[in-house]
Design goal:
- This protein is an alpha+beta fold.
- It contains 13 helices and ten strands.
- The strands form three sheets. The chain has a five-stranded antiparallel β-sheet with strand order 7-3-10-9-8, with helices on both faces.
- Helix 2 packs across helix 4, helix 6 packs parallel to helix 13 and helix 8 packs across helix 10.
- The longest helix is centred in the last third of the chain and has 22 residues.
Length: 354
């Protein structure tokens, strides 16, 4: 960030070290860092009064703040961003963390959805944050499709893919549907779709239905159209958002206001609000991106941070993302390599099974 770079260039060595120590202390403990504790860790021996003056200057610059009436300071959002951009030291990934993530691939199952579930659970456990995995649409050819009635106003589209993957999607069928019209609609579609992927069908299927409308009766035609609206997911590039580890963000000592912000965050995640937006931001370049607090509007109310990385298929095309959500005082130096490794792991897993 330009503003952060300008401020960073204005700091002398002592100010830089005090700033870095305050942020590192806060990220480690979550508590404000005072001048007395810094006198024991700084490389040069200076008085607590001198350190207090430096901290006041950093506060005036907008990098530190005072949460309570105390001598301690915490980094502001701008301060955290400057620390991440200019001071963050990314660690080597812990071997035990790597092993726990690798174990999610110790099955021969070809069900990508199930593997992504396990990866998301493992990522949450390793980081002690909430994990997110944005899964790609299933791109195997479709083998068979059928409609299943669950009542007068509920039905399923059941899709069986050539690789054994099965998807069930709930929808509201047009009034008056009968078992006969459902069978007719399914037979009509199966004659068109076999061997095609969902992406193939989005550009072909409606034209085919329009050209061959006379082959099915009006009830079956309505059912085909209403079913298509569900299983095409027109306009969506991603199939679902997997979120694990919500409880890791809910601490016993959180006040009601903090808990409500976390609930808002998860409500928004369930509705996939702004998910496309942060995915588009990750697509501007490979690698891990860090969004702190209000830098992404999805997290502005909850005061959370997101560490996220896209993952790619065998053609080096971005098809989804993995990430970790946590408080702004995340251990970024540890989380960044974990998210990066998980994204590579998921990309390889999907490439191997495609």
């Amino acid at each position: 960030m330009k503003q952060g770079e300008n401020i960073l260039s204005e700091l002398n060595d002592r100010s830089r070290e005090v700033f870095r120590r305050v942020v590192e202390g806060y990220l480690a403990s979550g508590d404000p860092v005072g001048s007395r504790s810094l006198t024991r860790t700084l490389s040069e021996k200076v008085s607590a009064a001198t350190i207090r003056n430096v901290m006041q200057d950093l506060e005036y610059m907008g990098l530190l703040g005072s949460p309570h009436i105390s001598a301690g300071r915490v980094p502001t959002q701008m301060g955290l961003r400057m620390f991440v951009d200019g001071f963050l030291e990314v660690r080597e990934m812990d071997q035990l963390d790597r092993q726990k993530l690798d174990e999610t691939l110790s099955t021969n199952a070809r069900d990508v959805g199930g593997l992504l579930d396990r990866v998301s659970t493992a990522l949450s456990g390793v980081t002690q944050g909430a994990s997110i995995v944005l899964a790609p649409k299933h791109e195997a050819p479709i083998k068979h499709l059928e409609f299943v009635s669950l009542g007068v106003d509920r039905a399923l589209v059941v899709m069986v893919f050539a690789d054994g993957h099965v998807e069930n999607r709930l929808f509201t069928p047009p009034p008056g549907q009968t078992p006969s019209s459902m069978r007719e609609a399914a037979n009509f579609l199966n004659a068109l779709i076999e061997g095609k992927t969902l992406s193939d069908l989005q550009t072909q299927i409606r034209t085919e239905i329009s050209n061959r409308r006379q082959e099915i009766d009006s009830l079956a035609h309505e059912l085909v159209n209403s079913g298509l609206a569900v299983w095409e997911n027109e306009g969506e590039r991603y199939e679902r958002l997997i979120v694990r580890g919500r409880a890791n963000l809910l601490n016993a000592d959180d006040n009601e206001e903090d808990l409500e912000r976390i609930r808002v965050l998860f409500d928004d995640l369930e509705r996939k609000r702004d998910i496309e937006e942060f995915l588009q931001l990750t697509e501007q370049g490979e690698g891990v991106r860090i969004f702190i607090g209000s830098e992404n509007k999805l997290f502005s109310l909850s005061g959370s941070s997101l560490v996220v990385s896209p993952y790619m298929n065998a053609d080096r095309k971005i098809i989804g993302a993995v990430g970790v959500i946590g408080p702004t005082r995340l251990n970024y130096g540890r989380i960044v390599p974990i998210v990066d490794y998980t994204a590579q792991l998921v990309g390889k897993m999907i490439s191997d099974r495609s």
